[in-house]
Specification:
Oligomer: single chain
Structural class: alpha/beta
Number of domains: 3
Number of helices: 13
Number of strands: 31
Strand content: 15-25%
Helix content: 10-25%
Distance between the termini: 9 Å
Length: 541
């Protein structure tokens, strides 16, 4: 960095568990001045971890007279997301209001929604209200960000809301950003071993005369096999005119491509941190499934079976509850997005490995026949894990390898289970080819996934279990445990020094509702460069 001279004060509204503040403070020049949240537990946690910032008393943030707040140059807001998301399995009506304006209440019937949810969605209006209040005092906010779930983009008032921000005071430019946390490449924050699709709206004063260098901060590194080199991947939408959605070549709305014409802009996979990075391999692998006093739910058992079938010879994560995830996840991929519940379990089936010097390098699943047995003791059993999500919906048939990122953590807690055999060894062994564990989500439709993939989205509840299997490959001999709060913390890319409070459920809810710190860091760096005109080096010294 060439030296950012300007100190930029920041207000963080709906500060939650502090993930946005963690990332924001890693940006050179940003100083956290004020934080607000309705939840007293979140305010206490935020105060413990950011003692130098002023904290408003917990309460109804919508009732605050915004004109009385101190001025800060930057404004980050993460309004409540549950009223927008479809992860709860409820129908959405906020994107259909025009269809129903001519219908009576009787004709609407079940279309009439919970007024509390409508009020919760109205919290996004706090952003333009704050900007108007500051502009009315002659001190316009220089830049800011609104974060939410991607479904927020479907709001039928979206265009009106965005134009309102752009027209305030001297005028703002805006950028709608779709970014998965596993693709945010931070300077100083920990990277997120979790697949977590989120919407971000960045805005900055037109009068600055500069625009953020989004290519510098939002393009992840990826390997292009055709060009045979690492490239800065370019986000590519599948349908013209679409600017928000999930990442994924199969089910997503956008992919990443190589920027070179010579390979015809080949689709590439950005580098990610695997779910295995968040798992504490020193912990007890858990009870054998067949010896549990309280049997696992039939749906969770089915997810484990699906995960074992999909990742025979590999470990993976499997969903174990909820309403939205369906596939197992390899441990070599990021976790599914974390929600507020524990929703993934870790499953660990074994591999047969030949140890003879003359043997080939191929390891075999225990579901395959043994190689020819000689008179020497040359076969070994290697047992790595996978994660299964405990959610329903699309996660019902999903498991992840521990080498993949975790699925999304949410605010409803423990949705990831770790399936693992007795005597499992360190993660180095799993990533070296003995990948046999699963994270099992507790969502209703979730699937197990290997630990080499990212976790599913972490919620605020414990929804993931860890599954493992003994060499005899009998399902009842698999071990299963839920991910611990420290593992959820790591899946959310919070540092180990972060101070939480409360029981496991409280911590899972706090982390699952949070923003992953790498994203506010990279977006903040882009905005600070535009404000100050001083470049920030892409990698920290």
């Amino acid at each position: 960095m060439m030296g950012v001279r300007m100190s930029l004060r920041s207000t963080v509204y709906f500060a939650g568990w502090g993930g946005d503040s963690l990332g924001w403070e890693e940006v050179p020049g940003i100083e956290l001045r004020l934080a607000a949240n309705h939840n007293p537990v979140c305010v206490e946690v935020h105060t413990l971890n950011f003692p130098d910032a002023e904290h408003l008393p917990p309460g109804d943030v919508e009732a605050i007279d915004l004109a009385t707040l101190p001025y800060t140059e930057l404004f980050w807001a993460s309004p409540a997301c549950p009223a927008w998301t479809d992860a709860k399995g409820r129908k959405r009506y906020f994107d259909k209001s025009n269809q129903y304006t001519l219908l009576s209440d009787d004709e609407l019937g079940t279309v009439i929604e919970d007024p509390a949810e409508a009020r919760s969605r109205g919290l996004v209006e706090q952003i333009p209200r704050y900007l108007r209040a500051m502009a009315g005092r002659g001190t316009p906010v220089l830049a800011g960000v609104m974060e939410n779930v991607i479904q927020c983009r479907r709001w039928d008032q979206w265009d009106r809301w965005l134009r309102a921000i752009e027209s305030i005071g001297p005028g703002y430019e805006t950028r709608v950003i779709a970014l998965n946390s596993m693709h945010a490449v931070p300077r100083r924050c920990l990277p997120a071993p979790q697949s977590r699709d989120r919407l971000y709206v960045a805005y900055w004063l037109k009068s600055l005369g500069r625009r953020p260098d989004w290519d510098k901060w939002l393009r992840p590194k990826a390997w292009c096999p055709t060009c045979d080199r690492v490239v800065d991947a370019v986000q590519s939408w599948k349908q013209p005119g679409i600017d928000m959605g999930r990442y994924g070549a199969r089910h997503g709305q956008y992919v990443y491509r190589c920027p070179a014409k010579s390979c015809r802009f080949q689709i590439v996979e950005p580098f990610t941190v695997p779910a295995a990075a968040a798992i504490d391999w020193s912990l007890d692998p858990g009870e054998k499934i067949g010896e549990r006093a309280r049997p696992l739910a039939a749906a969770t058992m089915e997810r484990i079976r699906i995960g074992l079938a999909k990742f025979a010879g590999e470990s993976f994560l499997t969903p174990a509850g909820g309403t939205w995830r369906a596939d197992p996840t390899a441990l070599s991929a990021p976790m599914p997005a974390r929600t507020t519940r524990e929703s993934d379990g870790l499953v660990v089936p074994p591999l047969i490995v030949q140890t003879s010097k003359r043997a080939d390098l191929t390891a075999r699943s225990t579901g395959q026949p043994l190689p020819t047995q000689t008179t020497r003791r040359e076969l070994a059993v290697a047992i790595p894990p996978f994660i299964t999500s405990l959610r329903g919906g699309g996660s019902r048939k999903t498991a992840r390898h521990v080498g993949e990122p975790l699925g999304t953590f949410s605010a409803r807690g423990f949705h990831h289970g770790l399936v693992q055999p007795p005597g499992s060894t360190a993660v180095v062994e799993q990533l070296a080819g003995t990948r046999e564990q699963l994270l099992v989500p507790y969502y209703r439709t979730g699937l197990a996934r290997p630990l080499t993939e990212p976790m599913g989205t972490l919620t605020t509840r414990d929804r993931h279990g860890l599954l493992g299997i003994d060499p005899d490959r009998i399902l009842a001999e698999c071990t299963f445990r839920m991910l611990e709060p420290d593992e959820i913390r790591a899946g959310m890319a919070f540092p180990p020094t972060y101070i939480p409070i409360g029981d496991k459920r409280t911590q899972a809810a706090g982390y699952g509702n949070a923003v992953t710190p790498p994203v506010p860091e990279v977006i903040g760096c882009a905005l600070v460069e535009a404000i100050t005109g001083e470049p920030i080096e892409r990698t920290a010294a």
